[in-house]
Amino acid sequence: MTRYYDEIDSFERSGFTVIVDKSYEDLHPSDCFDDTITDIKELCADIERGKLDWFMLRVRIMVDEYEMASEYLGGCLYENPRDVLTDGTVEDLVDQAMITAKREVYRMYKKFQDISWEHDAEGVV
What is the pTM of this model? Predict the structure, then answer.
């Protein structure tokens, strides 16, 4: 099954492109909340009416068209999905993904360096 994402934002950071997008959430809200926290029936009705958006968030760290890292967070509930950009949620995911992306850049740099040396030794320019 293909999962579709709607882009919320994209921006540049530390030489990477950061893409923030969202997709439908597979979990039912009652799997994440109970009636001691909120009225689940009312919450679900607000989601169905479009008053609230219930989604899974994804942050991708890109170099050109190559994904270097990604982080996901499910169970996001907002009136406006763009609010996720200002409440610290996206920043937490970006920070986590950037650590992975930087490690991947170093790993790939070393790998390409080894490949380059092999080609140089073969006389391929």
Answer: 0.84
Phi, psi values for residue 106, rounded to 5°: -65, -45
Whole-number Å distance between alpha carbons of 16 and 102: 10
Residue 63 CA to residue 22 CA, distance in Å, equals 20
Parallel, antiparallel or unpaired: strands 53-63 and 16-24: antiparallel
Q: What is the pLDDT of residues 52-103, one digit of tens each?
A: 999 999 999 999 999 999 999 999 999 999 999 999 999 999 999 999 999 9
Expressed in angstroms, the distance from the first to the final Cα of the chain is 43
Q: Please state the three-class secondary structure of the chain as a single string.
A: CCCCCEEEEEEEECCEEEEEEEEECCCCHHHCCCCCCCCHHHHHHHHHHCCCEEEEEEEEEEECCEEEEEEEEEEEEECCHHHHHCCCHHHHHHHHHHHHHHHHHHHHHHHHHHHHHHHHHHCCC
Q: For residues 90 and 84, is the Cβ–Cβ distance under 8 A?
A: yes
